[in-house]
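Lay summary. Proteins are chains of building blocks that fold into shapes, and those shapes determine what they do. In this project we predict the shape from the chain. Here is one chain we studied, written as its sequence of building blocks.
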Amino acid sequence: MRHGPSALRLIALSVAVAATAAAQEEPKTRDLPDAPAAKQDSTPQKHQNPYNTTIEVLGRRSIFFPNIATSVGPLSSKQKFELFADESVAPSRFLSSAFGAGIGQAQNSLEGYGQELGGYGKRFGSSMATAASNNFFGTFLIASLLHRDPRYFVTLHGGAGHRIGYALSRIVVSRKDAGRDAANWPGILGPLLAESLASSYLPVKEQTAGRTFQRYGIRVGLNTASNALREYWPTIFRSLRITKIAPGLRQDPAATTPAATRPSP
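And here is the predicted shape, written in a compact code that computers can read:
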């Protein structure tokens, strides 16, 4: 009982201190709704939206260009075979062969095929066959034997000169399954083997070594141009604002963070 007054004085002092602190904090609490913190936090997000949308596109499997990488993990031999099959029937392959057959028809190249609809069909068919064998050798067989990753890893960094230079370099440089850069033997030898095989079904005039190497050079040049298109394909998709309605895009269960974020791309 002797400590009763002291306890009361201590309680009274605590209440007074708490009331004083609450009175000091109250103006700050009323000022919080007017603080510009929320507006400042939303500004960087707007600047990042185009970049994030591009990453979202890269995280989805491209039907038009199936070999655009969506993950950093290596492919098994089975997955490389599946990629070869996807590339051989991709819309980009059909359009390229149809366009090339039309040019060949107009210029009467592979003249042994003749003209009219039959000649166009033969040119289109031979283009599809050569592309399929190129994918078989490059994307599957040689890539599996030499442990190369046949996909195209897009880079999102740097200006146009850097990105185009990177795309051109992918003709002679590729990734190993372990992730390191190495010589792109699948991309170099695949077209040569494909064009050599094409000599068995192309017209007689095309079955010489000179014509074979000529076609090989043309195919390497076309592959180089195709790399540049692959490099900018996610950017094109983002600019067209069709990432949500494109029917061919679906989430790849095996995909993680796009390799392009820390290098197709």
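What the prediction tells us: The chain has one domain: 74-261.
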